[in-house]
Design goal:
It is a single chain. The chain has 97 residues and is an alpha+beta fold. 37% of the residues lie in helices and 31% in strands. It is built from 4 helices and 3 strands, in the order ββααβαα. A 3-stranded antiparallel sheet has the order 2-1-3. The longest helix has 10 residues.
């Protein structure tokens, strides 16, 4: 079991992509450093070259790669992003669900 993380880009890459979902069995901070050093997903390598900054905004712990595929297949990463949907996540936090 590992962790799935959602990365929010500060601005869309090629006017299309604004999020990235990844999986790691290590600490997310270590994996993020790999991405920033060019050792990771091709998309984030291109994002680095375009000088677009990004941040991890959500982490799912104790999950497997099948859950990552399930999230990616939905083709709607923005839905899971607390930066893009602050009201949704604020409500959930206040309601305790």
């Amino acid at each position: 079991m590992g962790k799935i993380y959602l990365i929010h880009l500060d601005r869309p890459f090629q006017d299309k992509v604004s999020h990235y979902i990844g999986y790691t069995d290590r600490e997310v901070e270590q994996r993020l450093q790999d991405h920033k050093n060019g050792r990771g997903a091709r998309l984030l390598n291109a994002v680095n070259k375009a000088k677009i900054s990004y941040v991890v905004v959500r982490i799912w712990e104790d999950v497997d790669k099948y859950f990552e595929r399930k999230l990616k297949r939905q083709k709607n990463s923005k839905r899971f992003c607390p930066v893009c949907n602050p009201q949704r996540y604020l409500r959930r936090g206040l309601n305790g669900s």
